[in-house]
Amino acid sequence: MSESNNPRSTSEIASYHAHVYYNPATTRLEAERLRTWIDERFSVTLGRWHDVKVGPHDQAMFQVAFAADLFSAIVPWLMLNHGTLSVLVHPNTTNPRRDHLVNPLWIGSPLAVHGEKLPEDAAAEQPPSPNTHPIAISTEPPLIR
Ligand code: ZN
C-alpha cells in the first residue's frame, strides 16, 4: 500500500537511466552494436563500459542517462531493438533504492538488482549533458553502408 492517499507525481522524476546488460564473453559485440545505434540516434549520455559488476548491478553493463522528455522516444525503440540483451529502465527520484527495486521496468529478461547497495535518500539526478552524435532524425534502421 502507498504511504499516502495521493498518487505520486511524475514531477518527482528528474531523469531516467537505461542500463544495458551484456555478457563480456558472449554478447559484448551485440551491446557494442546497440550502443552505436543509440549514439547515432538519440541525444543521451552514454556511460563507460563496465565489464565487471559495479554497484547494484549483477552483470556487466553500460548506462544510458536521458532527460524525462526523451522517454517516449527511446524506451519504445529499446523495446524493439534490445535483441537478446536485458535492459533496466529506472526513474531518478530522491530514492535510488526504490527507483531500482520498486519502480523500474525491464526490457528483455529481468536480472537481479542489489538494492541494498543503494541509498534511500539522495539528490535526484538531473540529466547530464548529452555526449552522443546523432546523425539522423529518424529512428528507422540504419542504411546499409
Ligand atoms: Zn541507474
Structural features:
5 strands, alpha+beta, 21% helix, globular, five-stranded antiparallel beta sheet, binds zinc ion, 3 helices
Describe the structure.
This protein is of the alpha+beta class and 145 residues long. 21% of the residues lie in helices and 17% in strands. It has one domain (13-114): Alpha-Beta Plaits (2-Layer Sandwich). The N and C termini lie far apart (53 Å). The model has no long low-confidence stretch (mean pLDDT 92). The structure holds zinc ion.
Number of strands: 5
Gyration radius, to the nearest Å? 15 Å
CATH architecture: 2-Layer Sandwich
Label the structural class. alpha+beta
CATH level-4 homologous superfamily: DOPA-like domains
Shape, please? globular
Number of helical regions: 3
Average pLDDT works out at 92
The small molecules bound here are: zinc ion
Strand fraction equals 15-25%
CATH class call: Alpha Beta
Strands across the major sheet, in which order? 2-3-1-4-5
At the fold tier of CATH, the topology name is Alpha-Beta Plaits
Please tell me the total number of domains: 1
**N-to-C order of helices and strands:** EHEEHEHE
Q: What quaternary form is this?
A: single chain
Low-confidence stretches: none
Residues in helix, %: 10-25%
